[in-house]
Design brief:
Elements (H helix, E strand, L loop, with lengths): L3 H21 L3 H25 L4 H31 L13
Helix pairs in contact: 1-2, 2-3
InterPro entries: NADH_UbQ_OxRdtase_chain4L/K, NUOK/Mnh_C1-like
Organism: Rhizobium hidalgonense
GO molecular function: NADH dehydrogenase (quinone) (non-electrogenic) activity; quinone binding
């Protein structure tokens, strides 16, 4: 059986990679994928701790996070399509000014 700390290390590594992608990259699609990586690292830890304590709450929280993530991606891609139609760019620095 794989020890719990391996899953924690995997979750931390995924979280650091995702956080670095959010903070350092300038492409909106890469930032969105990095956010997904952040949320999946949290899911790994939820499931690992749920398995360690022999409780299903970790899996339930992970499924809830996956559902919220799917809704977030749908909204973000809709905004992204509208943004590309108006600005013709995917760089974060070029779209920081939002007009109502």
């Amino acid at each position: 059986m794989v020890p719990l700390w391996w899953y924690i290390v995997l979750g931390v590594v995924l979280f650091v990679i995702g956080a670095a992608g959010v903070l350092l990259r300038r492409n909106i699609l890469v930032v969105l994928m990095s956010l997904e990586l952040l949320l999946n690292s949290v899911n790994v830890n939820f499931i690992a701790f749920g398995r360690y304590h022999a409780d299903f709450r970790g899996q339930i929280f992970a499924i809830f996070v996956i559902a919220i993530t799917a809704a977030e991606v749908a909204v973000a891609l809709g905004i992204l399509v509208a943004l590309v139609r108006n600005k013709s760019t995917l760089k974060v620095d070029d779209v920081t000014v939002m007009k109502g």
